[in-house]
Write a structure and sequence with these properties.
2 domains, alpha+beta, seven-stranded mixed β-sheet, about 500 residues, single chain
Length: about 500
């Protein structure tokens, strides 16, 4: 049967993850604050790459949700103050024998409660309506919230083109590829001899065209999507650096020592990091593929080592699992207007006392938090300016990494991840062979090395690699795998500026 006659089946939206995160910031204030803290507030540390997320849309909605909550709490705090004032006036009027004044003040004090309930109801209704539109509507998420500052949006857009990622020293051992998720395999492939020249059809020896690791990285970045047949494959060379080294990389990376490092650096630096290693500063080719709907993101980081006559690949494979269950809350919102109003009214009533009387305290704690953060920033910037400390500019994690849950990896996610990794692995080998042939290198022993790599390479899709590891035979790493949930070494939302 021709394909155009087959019954179309439903598909996940390509922006499903972004829309769920945007919907959740309107219903979960803690998550909205986490988004703004990582992506929008002033700071010094690098931002982990949020793979598969439209961060501009997410920050717009987080800012909108925070502003709505701020207006609500300011209104409630005003009503609480009015209620306290009226109660004091009632006491004064009773002691002065002015009954009409006492009655009027008492009436206003009582009326403040339904007034506050209405304020909360309208704010909750607006939040739920927007979350419902994000979950089931079709308008782009970025169009459903007003823009934020142009400078902020420009910096967020640059994350899509990032070619420089500094990682915090605390992640040096377990997760230097910060933002990529859970490690499931790493190792070094069998070396290949690239010193022997190939022969032409007449048996004459050809001259090897000189090349370096940067040339090989660039070739794979361009050719891989076509070789593996995955149009959605993203390939980019990135320079990964230890956070304490950032200050020594110059103004091309850190133009202002008291600001965050740049996310895009000159390509010559990236090329240099591929040819030779610096002080914990190396370039990797990052191959990224998102599963259906973006629920799972698979990443393969590879680095070519060209030492003398031998070429080998260092490989590290990672998975970003599906979102945590709390981001399914939008699925439980009723679609009918009457039902939505009823659910909102029940929610408002259930927590009204805490919401109403807790407004002044929430505003005070938020101001205290922001003031403490600003003081900490100012102190560290002063220390940096005076040269008293070498600051670690590296990122601890990424937002997408923080919201994943390995326990939600289902059959389809595991199948897709395994398929992507196998195709990426085969594509790297095919591209490498083509590159060597184009440079007149004899690849007669490449087939046996290729078979050995394919036969010995395995990916533990059932559980992330969390335990200690030892190098085994065939240059393959043997890992003690632990099937446990949660992000290994979950970092705090905001450990340092």
């Amino acid at each position: 049967m021709p394909l155009n006659q087959l019954t179309p089946l439903p598909k996940f939206r390509t922006d499903m993850v972004t829309r769920r995160l945007c919907a959740t910031v309107h219903l979960d204030h803690a998550f909205a604050r986490q988004v703004l803290a990582q992506l929008a507030e002033d700071g010094l540390q690098a931002v982990g790459l949020p793979f598969g997320i439209n961060v501009v849309a997410l920050v717009r909605h987080a800012r909108l949700a925070a502003q709505r909550r701020g207006r609500r709490d300011n209104a409630l705090a005003g009503l609480v103050a009015l209620q306290v004032l009226c109660v004091l006036m009632v006491l004064w009027a009773l002691s002065a024998g002015s009954a009409p004044v006492a009655v009027a003040a008492g009436f206003i004090a009582v009326a403040a409660l339904p007034g506050g309930w209405t304020v909360v109801l309208l704010a909750e209704r607006e939040a739920r309506q927007l979350a419902l539109e994000l979950g089931r509507g079709h308008q782009p998420a970025s169009d459903l919230a007003p823009p934020v500052e142009p400078e902020l949006e420009k910096s967020l857009e640059q994350l899509k083109r990032a070619n420089f990622v500094p990682y915090h020293s605390s992640e040096d051992h377990a997760r230097p590829f910060v933002g990529s998720g859970w490690l499931i395999q790493k190792g070094v492939w069998t070396p290949i001899d690239v010193s022997r020249p190939a022969k032409d059809a007449h048996g004459n020896t050809r001259r090897i065209i000189p090349f370096d690791a940067s040339d090989l990285h660039h070739y794979l970045a361009v050719q891989m999507p076509g070789i593996v047949g995955l149009d959605a494959l993203k390939a980019r060379n990135r320079l990964y650096a230890h956070g304490l080294i950032v200050a020594h990389l110059g103004p091309d990376v850190l133009p202002v020592p008291t600001r965050r490092p740049l996310v895009t650096v000159p390509k010559q630096m990236v090329q240099s990091g591929a040819v030779r290693s610096g002080a914990r500063t190396e370039t990797y080719l990052c191959l990224r593929m998102a599963g259906e709907g973006g629920s799972v993101v698979v990443t393969m980081h590879i680095r070519a080592h060209l030492m003398g006559s031998r070429l080998d690949w260092e490989v590290a494979a990672y998975i970003l699992p599906p979102l945590d269950a709390r981001f399914d809350v939008v699925d439980h919102l009723p679609a009918g207007p009457g039902q939505l109003w009823w659910q909102t009214a029940r929610h408002t009533t259930a927590g009204f006392r805490h919401t109403f009387f807790g407004a002044p305290g929430r505003l005070r704690r938020e101001r205290s938090r922001q003031n403490a953060w600003n003081r900490q920033l100012a102190k560290i910037r002063k220390e940096i300016t005076k040269g008293r400390i070498v600051f670690d500019y590296g990122a601890h994690s990424s937002l997408r990494e923080d919201v994943g849950d390995w326990d939600r990896m289902g059959f389809h996610e595991e199948r897709d991840a395994a398929q992507y990794f196998q195709r990426l692995q085969q594509g790297v080998l095919i591209a490498t062979e083509r590159f060597l042939e184009a440079h007149n290198v004899d690849t007669s022993d490449f087939e046996s090395a290729q078979n050995q790599i394919i036969n010995t390479q395995t990916y533990n899709i059932q559980g992330p690699v969390l335990g200690p590891s030892q190098w085994g035979n065939n240059n393959q790493q043997q890992n003690q795998n632990q099937n446990q949930s949660g992000n290994p070494g979950n970092p705090p939302n905001k450990p340092l500026p």
